[in-house]
Structure of Alpha-1,4 glucan phosphorylase:
Amino acid sequence: HGQQPSETETSGTTAIAAQDNRSADGIRLAFLRHMRRTIGKPVEFSNTLDQYRAMAHLVRDRVMDDWITTVESYVQHNVRVVCYLSAEFLLGPHLLNAMLNLGITDSAEKACDELHYSLTQLADEEPEPGLGNGGLGRLAACYMDSMTTLEVPAVGYGLRYEFGIFRQEIRDGWQVEHSDKWLEYGNPWEIPASEATQHVSFGGHTETTKDEKTGELIWKWVPAFTVKGVAYDTPIPGYRNKQVNRLRLWKAEAEDSFDLEIFNRGDYMGAVRDKMESETISKVLYPPDETEQGKRLRLMQQYFFTSCSLQDMVRLHKLQKLPIEKFADKWSVQLNDTHPSIGIAELMRILTDEEEIGWDEAWTITQATFGYTNHTLLPEALEKWPLPIFASLLPRHIEIIYEINRRFLKDMQAKFPGDTARWARMSLIGEDGEKQVRMANLAVVGSKMVNGVAKLHSELLKEDTLKDFYEAFPNRFTNVTNGVTPRRWLMLADPPLTALLNEVLGTAWHTDLYALRGLEDYVDDAGFLDKWRKRQEESKGRLGDFIKRSMDVSLNPASMFDVQVKRIHEYKRQHLNALHILGLYCRIKSGELKDLPPRTFLFGGKAAPSYTYAKLMIKLVCTVGELVGKDPQTKDLLRVLFVPDYSVSLGQRIYPAADLSEQISTAGKEASGTGCMKFMMNGAVAIGTLDGANIEIREEVGEENFFLFGLTAPQIAEKQKAGYRPRDFYEKSPLLREVMDGLRDGRFSNGDRDTFAPLVRDLLEVDRYFVMADFDDYARAQSEAGKIFCDSKKWSRMSLLNTARSGKFSSDRSIREYCQNIWKINLDR
Ligand code: 73E
């Protein structure tokens, strides 16, 4: 603190030398300086956006000071570096997070008070960098926070999308997408790194020549065009440790701003066309779509950022005068799903074609460099590239992949003689129908370690999806259960809860979340439980205020807040939740349910723009909301709200206010889930299936503090094999019948029988995700949760134990495991 040179400042009439640039005075003066010099306005003419920007710049200055010292110490100690390659980094707003990690929030608040601003209002001006779709991208952001906090030298590498995830509007119950112009007013959190610019080639053909001396074949790629990669760095500050790591995102630009020769011939449009085509590579974030269209561009994105990143590592490696043969000793590259797995072929190309290392040594280095994290078992999400697209874009890489495959299959033929079916399954090239490059197979073959993201998921990978590979390389497989950063998801999201925890536990839990166990001492303390309940009600009040302001809807803070926020997907089963609410509606209408405690059902999440079914699920939720909200018999008991445009910042408002956390995916389908962990830390009790991280949450919190329902993964597999008939469940359950009949007959939708017909038909005839099979048991678990909620002491006890036992789900724990089992980095240096 305060070692940085002091700033001499003029604020209107007073000139004060700030002794400590982290004090309220220092911050106020720096704010006024940035208002003049960076924003260029007299402070009295500034608007809230200007004020946010001035504040962001002064906070960034303070992060930069720590950055310089961190970089210097990395270079000095020649540390091993983790490179986290990810197509998505869903960071969320920076300002308050950076202040929290630097420890200057109180000073900043004081400075704002003196200037008559509200820090939270000003922070609300920050456009959220939505460079991710959901869990996978958010996980990358949590891991950056934890790596820096644990002082792991790390670089995050990804794409600087000009347009992030679309903004969602709900119009008449339907999702409408709008483009996300997050860079419109500039981004104070990034710094272009001109020295790091790279060039990435595409297309063309390959040629071979003979080396005159050795007679060996030399491969040469003659590309059709190249694209420039410009690096933008975002500093990632650790929690109160003066460490700052780098997130390096690549922007695609044309090699020359336009072709002068064409321009001189008078063809201006032709001259800028190349520029526009190159720049589309980093234009927009891909939503996970099933459509074929756009595949080529997505592959270009993947190769573009992966190649830039590996070239950057080689550049830095040489800058430090390290021998290229030692590449794997210096760099540990983690592949966040298969999106960057083309990196395996790219590193082979760099090592063999450019560095002229022999194949065997290059392969040893490559395998020792990469680790692969798998995030999904859904077959439609396993990346496969049609061979013609792949070969035309990356003609050299397809040759390299063929060679990797030839050698690999030779090994497998020796290991599993005669087992031709197995060889075909394991091949890097799929031959069923159109030929394809199988990226998961490439990722497993080219990595030293492969991990799933929760215990069950890692087991299913070994038993099913990657079974052949597990049998070939059993030691390569491991598990690292996901985690989330308690700094953003507890401390930033819920300051009153943080204050309460600090009061009784001290602050050790900030970086050792297992210390929350100390809360268990209060589990029978009636006074404390009462405090706990009041705090929870206040959280609900704050969310209520926000919803009143933004949606003009009033919520009842005494009602149970029952929340499902996540991407909209059939396997996550938001429709199961909606059907259950319709069940409650029917039972209230018939007079069967009388003393139901009031409930507020909150939904949030985006559907992929081309995913028609998911969009229909949103419409269903909104239709149910309208139905129960208008009916005088139900409107005080049930309230259903779809909160539009779910995001990181909206999540920060929602998690602290939840009583019940909906984790109701079909068992075996959610690889991990991470929202469940954010709810748990904030004291929500889960209702869920034995799926993903739910299993470990229930293990930690105890079965009596988790509302379990539904078929297990083995039961689902069995039903699938035996031939699942959803209609049997419909026929057996009177409540389910009433709900499905009502939906079909238009009873819930003002007589409209058409809108939900496809959904009803699908659920009764196909129901890939076992909604019908799990309906009754879900309703049973829900009613149990409702009963216990009425006993507020019992509920508070469960809630408190959820927070107390959430220690395992800190991303600090996950990163420790990556360091130990995958990256081989010693944290007790
Ligand atoms: O279960 C989540 C998991 O918690 C999983 O569905 C998600 O990753 C989270 C973090 O491990 C995930 N996202 C994707 N695949 N799995 C994905 C696939 C394609 C494009 C974008 C994201």
